[in-house]
Structures are given as structure tokens and as C-alpha cells.
Amino acid sequence: MKRLRLYQVDAFADELFTGNPAAVCPLDSWLPDALMQKIAGENNLSETAFFAKKGETYHIRWFTPEIEVDLCGHATLASAHVLFRHLKFAGDRIQFNSKSGPLYVTTRDDLICLNFPSAIYKKVHPPAELVDGIGIKPVVTYQSTDYLMLLNSEQEVREANPDFSLLAGLNTRGIIITAEGETVDFVSRFFAPGAGINEDPVTGSAHTLLVPFWSERLGKTDFIAQQVSERGGTLFCRLSGDRVEISGRAITYMEGELCLS
Length: 261
Prior knowledge:
Layout: E1 2-11, E2 20-27, H1 33-43, E3 47-54, E4 57-63, E5 68-69, H2 73-86, E6 93-98, E7 101-108, E8 111-117, E9 122-124, H3 128-134, E10 140-143, E11 147-150, H4 154-159, H5 164-167, E12 175-180, E13 186-192, E14 197-200, H6 207-218, E15 222-227, E16 233-240, E17 243-248, E18 250-260
Parallel strand pairs: 2-3, 4-6, 11-12, 13-15
Antiparallel strand pairs: 1-2, 1-18, 3-4, 4-5, 6-7, 7-8, 8-17, 9-10, 10-11, 12-13, 13-14, 15-16, 16-17
């Protein structure tokens, strides 16, 4: 019987049962794609990350319960946490190679800092299914890999009650709703019913779009952000040229083994 290590980590979390839980599975060699997808489905978390060492770097892949995705922030943070804390990674900078290019992770004080490429976005007229699905008319809408809808207030973001059956039909990875925060720079929520995730608790990759958007809007480069899902999470962000730094904390919830016959 083949046994693999498995960790479950709460990412962008200051305490257990907050932030976004991710499963992390370190590999010595790659498993078949279909098996990794089955493992992700069995874990039934928004993301399961698999990584394998190649030379001095690591290759990383991410799976939702239904599909493989090209970029995931919280599961990358969780993977770095596993390397630094559990696998005794000796350096202070990890390079993950991915379908979205090289991703860099460092530590600063008690934070894990992700360095991701900044998203390119454009202003669009929102399709009716998007507006009806969110149930709120946006101030303005932009599109990149995801739709981004600016709402009037933090209260609107918190109280939005989406129709996921409408949103699932959109040709997009996900939908971000955002507004200026009352006690932080900005707040957001993220929905991806087309990928099998109605609402993601904390979405690091969404901030590759949120940070340049709010930088242009507020005229600053450093932000404290909150994703105001039920679990919630805090992110410390910085726009640095064509890269976005996204920092947060992580806590291990569970360690175990997969038993694969």
C-alpha cells in the first residue's frame, strides 16, 4: 500500500477554524492527474496542493474538488507553511514553478509572503447573469481571469446573497465583489460555483487583481485587506511593479497519511 503525507492547513488565519483550509500533499514524484483529482475530490476542500522538488525549486499544482486551476494563493501559502514548519526547509526563499510562472515565497516576522504576477484587467459592461446572480447593481465592473464588481459599501459586500445557479453559467473562473473597508483598506468576497466552490473563504489569487485595482483607485501601494466570508481572513498586500505581494499567517490543523492501494 502506497502512503503519502497529507497536511491540512488554515491559511490567512490568525487562529484555527478561520481563514481558508487547504490540503497539502508533498510528493517525491508526480501521481497521475486523474488520481490527484480524485484525492482533491475526497478532501473536498476548496483546494488541494501537490508539490514535488526539482533541483533547488518546487513544482506546484492545485486542484479544486472538480478541476485543476492555474493559480491559487492560499494553498501556496499553506504549502510554504508545510515546507518551513514541517519539512524543515533550510532557506528563507522558496521558488514554486507553476502554470502561472514562477512564484516566490519568503518569511517576514511571523508572516508568509507570496510574490505573484499582477493581473491585467479591463473595464467591461457586466452581463445580465452576473448582475442578477449577485443581486446588486455594481458601481463598475472589470474583467481579468475573474470578474470584479465594485459595490457601494462594505455592508453591501457582507450582505450579498448570490444566486449560484446563475453565476455558474458564466464563462469565468470566479466573481469578486469588493468595496472600500470601514476599518481596513478594502474588503471582498469571492464566488466560483463553476469550479465547484460557491464561496471561497479567503482567495489569495483574487488579490492579484484586487491590489492593482485598489492601488489605481486609492493612489497607494500598501494595503490591509479582509475577505469577509463566514470564516474570514486578513491579508497584508503590496503592489510592487508588475508583481503583487500577499502576506498572511497559517496554522496546521491536521497531519496524516493517505493510504493508496
